[in-house]
Amino acid sequence: MSAPATLQQRLAARDWAGFGAELDRHGCAILPGLLTAAECRDLAALYPQEGHFRSHIHMARHGFGQGEYRYFSYPLPDLVAELRAGLYLHLAAVANGWNARMAIGTRYPGTLEAFLQQCHAAGQTRPTPLLLQYGPGDFNCLHQDLYGDLAFPLQVAFLLSEPGRDFTGGEFVLTEQRPRMQSRAEVVPLRQGDAVAFAVHHRPVRGSRGDYRVNMRHGVSTLRSGRRHTLGIIFHDAT
Ligand SMILES: O=C(O)CCC(=O)C(=O)O
Ligand SMILES: [Fe+2]
């Protein structure tokens, strides 16, 4: 058997133009099977190892939902750091295209390292990648992961558990609030190892009179049974 592809090879093999077009059309796009089942298991197994994390949030205490999550501390585990830097390379062009269409002046540098230097200079120094854990009855309220003035407009979530086998319910949900119109919901069907990229806050939508801006939120519907883990990759650091 040939050696499994490295993460760099797996990322390089993707159709990034098609992915960018999907993000432009829908505000979200799936990267199927980016992580192996073993990588998903290994990442989820980090959850109880407190040494990897800077903080532990119980969502119910903050009115965020029910369930818990932990923000990684620096240095990030190798796989998390590689995913964050590797995905950024491909998402920066989409982010810059969105800002141009929304008449927002900010442009993002070509590498995560350069973007994080900007965050750190602005006082946003705390790492934001996180692991989430849900049990029966848990859910994640619709929200936006903004942690300061600097915000990269896209983020990525990886489903680490297998629907149907490890848990039921617990669907990833996006809503889109359109100006002077009612909101639209989208359920994103994910399998273990899939990633979904989506808008953190705003995205441009093409209308008959040019682009307009919609307000996006994401969350997770109630888990009916089992246990669900997710890896969240947010590119901006937090104050
Ligand atoms: O558990 C999920 O699928 C949602 C995770 C989330 O809110 C995030 O990655 O920012
Ligand atoms: Fe989130």
From TrEMBL:
Keywords: Iron, Metal-binding, Oxidoreductase
Pfam families tied to this protein: Oxygenase-NA
Highest taxon listed in the record's lineage: Bacteria
Chain ranges of the Fe2OG dioxygenase domain: 125-238
GO terms for MF: metal ion binding; oxidoreductase activity
Family that this chain belongs to: Belongs to the iron/ascorbate-dependent oxidoreductase family.
Name of the protein in its database record: Proline hydroxylase
Origin organism lineage: Bacteria, Pseudomonadati, Pseudomonadota, Alphaproteobacteria, Rhodobacterales
